[in-house]
Amino acid sequence: MFKSLSRNVIIYGGSNAIKSLVPVLMLPILTAYLTPSEFGVLSLIETTILFLSPFILLNINSAIGVEFFKLEHSELKLYITNALLLSLLSFIIIYGVFFAFQYEISQWIGIDNEMVILLAVFSILRVISQISLGLMQVSQKVKTFALFSLGQTLLDFFLSYIFVVFFLSGMEGRLEGVYGSFFVVSVIGFYFLFVGDYIGKINLQYTKSILKFGVPLIPHVIGGTIMAMSDRYFISYYFGSAEVGLYSIAYQMSALMLLASTSVNQAWAPMLFKLLKDNNKRTIRQVTSLLAGVFIVAAFCIYMLEDVLFYIFVNDDFFLAKQYFPYLLLGFLFQSFYFLATNKFFYEKRTGLLASITILGALLNLLLNYIFINDFGVIGVAYATCLTWFIFCLVVLLVRFLLLENRGVCCSE
Questions:
Q1: What's the burial of 392, exposed, middle or buried (CB within 10 Å: 0-12/13-18/19+)?
Q2: Contact of 381 with 373, CB cutoff 8 Å
Q3: Mean pLDDT rounded to a whole number for the chain
Q4: What ranges do the domains of the chain cover?
Q5: What's the gap between Cα 158 and its chain centre?
Q6: Whole-model pTM?
Q7: Residue 103 neighbours by CB under 8 Å, 6+ apart
Q8: pLDDT digits over 12-42, tens only?
Q9: Within 10 Å of residue 61's Cβ, how many Cβ atoms?
Q10: Are 351 and 215 in contact (CB under 8 A)?
Q11: Is the sign of the CA dihedral 42, 312, 327, 340 positive or negative?
């Protein structure tokens, strides 16, 4: 058990390390070729895509991950086909709305209207990639996962470098690199689904089940995105896009913490689902405690390397971002603990409950952002992010303990 988990963590961690290093390795290039204001606009575009994606993806990747262990292959094939069709229909609707109201949306979020109409396209390019990676993960095809993820990562870096450095396309070049790579891996991902016999005839029999699982998760994902990303909008409104650029640098550097927690959770979640099916509570408690300790050690190591990381990867013009780093890193540590707590909610399809908690967390984050940015300035949103994730993680653990203990499941599972 531990040997298999360790091996998978190493493979997932290696692929995620390379994937996470692309934004970091791009920092010396982007901070040299982009102004803080352009970097801030780029961050606002990515933030808006993250807000939009749940409405197109419909969380079908999470639904497929759960149903993988419950449906026969022939049923799973129909389920995936049904899910892809729903995602396509959602994209068409959202694209129409953004096209019709492009000027109003442009003024509201501070992005050129030409870019607004591409946001839905950028979002749907993520769908096939996420579904393919999710299937590789739950089926524990870790080597295939690593190759697929690594290929996307290297292509992302190569295209971005070409467009930004050689063609001097600036912010647009970075977007062309990112979503050009998403397009290529979407084609490869669809081939993976086809060859793996995951694509069947159009069938709507699972529509209700997919929507019942995925729709309650939309507020959950949006709430999580608000907690993670709304700070950019507050900074942009009060202080401008240049300050957003500085803050985003600190956010990317501290997000190295997510490399550890995401890698571990990707390896752990499929094993946890099987252990839950076998009702192996003791092993779950032991592994979860061990993983929590790993997260703490990882956060401490990243904090000690702060000066080294900024010196290597960040241009001097962006060094003011260091002041936000410790608070964002601590927030990511609390978010890592939250990952461990929520897997059981997904397994039992308690997505509606999780969504309710997340919405409350998002509202708390918006309130804290508003109060702290007025009292402390830009660093106030870093305080708000850290405090929000602490309270949110605590509430999720408490709710899980109170509601699931009677079913024989400890909160530490």
A1: buried
A2: yes
A3: 81
A4: 1-215, 217-412
A5: 22
A6: 0.66
A7: 113
A8: 556 666 666 667 777 778 878 887 778 778 8
A9: 22
A10: no
A11: positive
